[in-house]
């Protein structure tokens, strides 16, 4: 009789309770990991967008800083006695407020609260604020600097590189340090034309050459060949804008009540703006001017701060008594057309810009820690010395709306000493 041996097998497995507990643990781990990943991703996006804002701010505001430093470069200080220069500037409604034509141009002009959302509006005038290659170049013509077989001629100085090119449109400004009435004068030919085509062979219309050994002519490039300048300089306006003809609205991720900070170039062809965006999502821009109120600015110090002039000419100042004096400097005088440009050259020491801009994008769970931000406190005791930093210049703090507080904000500060004003060359 055969015997069968039955081998017992262990058929025990996981119980239902064990499976449920294991699944619960795995689900909890997955949820925690997902939340951690979401937090890391959100923070990464926020940091990336914040860095994008910072990089954009650095690039755009460096362009603005450069132009502020260059204000006044290549500008005539006066026109030839007895002649009226025929030139025109901006045709924009607001830009036209800052035109100097047909008078002597100022290195800068501005209006307090004239831009979008009560921000300031600023115009800078200099040959170098243009974008044409020619506007970045200059040279000079001394009296009789070239020896030839037939005698000495006046020719432009040639640099090792970056020279003006053939047919670039340039202007000539006569300097004569022995005669104030003949110094920094815009040169014209007999037909009243102030611009001409530069020639790389050194030949220049005799009307634009020095006439005596006391004179030197400075040649500044204005625009490219084939385009006649509408003004003997370049001009760029800076303002916050939400939406105008020819300008796009701010990106969709910008907070409410913000716009784009533009550099708007006056086009020589028609006087309209050519827009160059510098910084997105800007809520406010305020400008503060630092002045040397001594005679002809010879003290070489800042002893007063002011706002830009309001549309009615009002100038807020610290100390308060300086406002009337500086307002007088910025008021045109029909008997002295060069008065305002001269006052700016001699007394303006520093320009401060305060720009409030969004940093990153909206965060639904974030609330900005304060409901107000002070934009442009013009005077600080550490930098002002004995200047009265009272309420005469303190602006109301910028009030953030409930929606704006879901964004992070950054206050950019630019402090610039214009290099081409006499006040900064002593």
Short overview:
The chain is α+β, with helices and mostly antiparallel strands and 426 residues long. Helix content is 18%, strand content 25%.
Using only CA atoms, what is the Rg? 31 Å
Q: What level of helicity do the residues show?
A: 10-25%
H/E element sequence: HEEEEEEEEEEEEEEHHEEHEE
The geometry reads as: elongated
* Tally of alpha and pi helices: 4
Query: Would you tell me the overall average pLDDT?
Result: 85
Describe the fold and architecture.
The chain has 426 residues and is of the alpha+beta class. It has two domains: 49-131 and 230-424, no CATH class; 133-223, no CATH class. Helix content is 18%, strand content 25%. The protein contains four helices and 18 strands. Strands 1, 2, 10, 11, 12, 13, 14, 15 and 18 form a nine-stranded antiparallel β-sheet that branches. A hairpin with a 6-residue loop joins strand 11 and strand 12. It is elongated and about 115 Å long. Mean pLDDT is 85; it is low at 380-384.
Topology:
Blueprint: H1 16-70, E1 108-111, E2 121-126, E3 138-142, E4 146-148, E5 151-153, E6 169-175, E7 185-186, E8 195-197, E9 216-223, E10 234-241, E11 259-266, E12 273-291, E13 304-307, E14 317-318, H2 322-329, H3 339-347, E15 348-359, E16 372-373, H4 381-384, E17 398-399, E18 408-416
Antiparallel strand pairs: 1-2, 2-10, 3-9, 4-5, 6-7, 6-8, 6-9, 10-11, 11-12, 12-13, 12-15, 13-14, 15-18, 16-17
């Amino acid at each position: 009789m055969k015997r069968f041996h039955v081998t017992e097998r262990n058929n025990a497995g996981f119980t239902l309770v064990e499976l449920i507990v294991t699944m619960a643990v795995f689900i909890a781990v997955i949820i925690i990991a997902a939340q951690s990943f979401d937090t890391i991703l959100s923070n990464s996006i926020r940091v990336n967008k914040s860095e994008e804002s910072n990089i954009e701010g650095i690039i755009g505001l460096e362009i603005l800083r450069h132009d502020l430093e260059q204000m006044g470069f290549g500008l005539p200080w006066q026109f030839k006695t007895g002649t009226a220069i025929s030139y025109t500037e901006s045709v924009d409604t607001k830009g036209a407020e800052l035109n100097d034509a047909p008078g002597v141009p100022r290195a800068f002009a501005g209006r307090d609260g004239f831009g979008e959302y009560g921000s300031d509006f600023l115009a800078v005038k200099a040959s170098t604020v243009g974008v044409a290659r020619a506007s970045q170049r200059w040279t000079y013509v001394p009296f009789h600097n070239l020896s030839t077989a037939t005698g000495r001629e006046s020719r432009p100085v040639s640099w090792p590189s970056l020279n003006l090119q053939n047919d670039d449109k340039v202007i000539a400004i006569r300097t004569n340090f022995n005669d104030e009435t003949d110094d920094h004068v815009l040169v014209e030919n007999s037909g009243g034309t102030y611009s001409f085509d530069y020639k790389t062979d050194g030949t220049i219309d005799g009307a634009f050459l020095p006439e005596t050994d006391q004179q030197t002519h400075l040649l500044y490039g204005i625009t490219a060949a084939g385009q006649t300048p509408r003004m003997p300089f370049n001009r760029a306006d800076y303002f916050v804008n939400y939406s105008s003809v020819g300008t796009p609205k701010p990106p969709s991720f910008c907070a409410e009540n913000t716009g784009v900070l533009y550099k708007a170039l006056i086009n020589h062809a028609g006087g309209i703006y050519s827009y160059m965006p510098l910084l997105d999502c800007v809520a406010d821009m305020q400008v503060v001017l630092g002045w040397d109120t001594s005679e002809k600015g010879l003290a070489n110090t800042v002893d007063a701060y002011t706002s830009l002039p309001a549309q009615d000419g009002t100038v807020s100042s610290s100390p308060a008594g300086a406002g009337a004096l500086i307002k007088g400097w910025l008021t045109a005088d029909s008997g002295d057309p060069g008065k305002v440009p001269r006052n700016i050259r001699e007394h303006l020491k520093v320009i401060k810009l305060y720009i409030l801009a969004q940093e990153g994008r909206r965060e639904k769970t974030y609330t900005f820690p304060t409901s107000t931000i002070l934009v442009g406190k013009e005077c600080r005791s550490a930098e002002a010395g004995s200047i009265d930093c009272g309420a005469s210049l303190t602006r109301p703090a910028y009030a953030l709306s409930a929606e704006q507080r879901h964004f992070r904000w950054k206050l950019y500060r630019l402090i610039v000493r214009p290099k081409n004003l006499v006040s900064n060359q002593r």
